[in-house]
Every structure is written in structure tokens, then in C-alpha cells.
Design a protein that fits this description.
This protein is α+β, with helices and mostly antiparallel strands. About 20% of the residues lie in helices and about 20% in strands. The chain has 2 helices and 5 strands.
Length: about 120
Amino acid sequence: MSALSDCIFCRIAAGEVPAEVVAHDDDFVAFRDARPLAPVHLLVIPREHVASLDEAEALDAHASARALAFIAATARSAGVAETGYRVITNTGPDAGQEVLHLHWHVIGGARLGGMV
């Protein structure tokens, strides 16, 4: 893992900044969003620092292969798989990416509105 001292998500992954972690393994960490948009709003991050989905090829092959399975398992353990959930990643400023560390929002627990 590359712990960048100015990246809040790297610091969460390293355990330096507290977060309500709901799942983790060697490659990923899932934690509750500090500003939830729905009853379940989790963030899934790779432990390895990658700025955005646009740079996903920087993830090692093992992590890339497991990313979607980890996200789905996290949604199941949060109890939203049966009724449905949304997975979103914002890439770049026009999409609203606020933290320059690849992350997926897992949102559910209520009927969600439109996409944009």
C-alpha cells in the first residue's frame, strides 16, 4: 500500500484516521460515508492509492479482478442486495469527484431517485 500523507482515504485505509469500517481485506476497505445520501451509503476504496477510475490500470491485477466481487459482498453484508443498490464512481471534477482516490459509493436502503 502506498500511504500518501495528504490523501484522507489512504490514511483511513492505514488506520490513521477513524472511520466506521464495515468490511476490509488485503486489497479493499469499506466504510460508512460521513455525509450519507441514503440509509446505506458506503464507500469502497482500494488500499493502494489510485487517483480515479481513469487510472484503474495502476491497480495490481489481483485487486482489479476482485474489485466488483468485494463491492457486491459489501452490499450483501449491508443488507441491500435483495432490494437493490446503486454503485457509483465519480471520475474528475465535472463528475463531482471530491477525493482524488478511487472509490465506489454503494447506496441503498431506500428507493433511489433518478441517476443525475
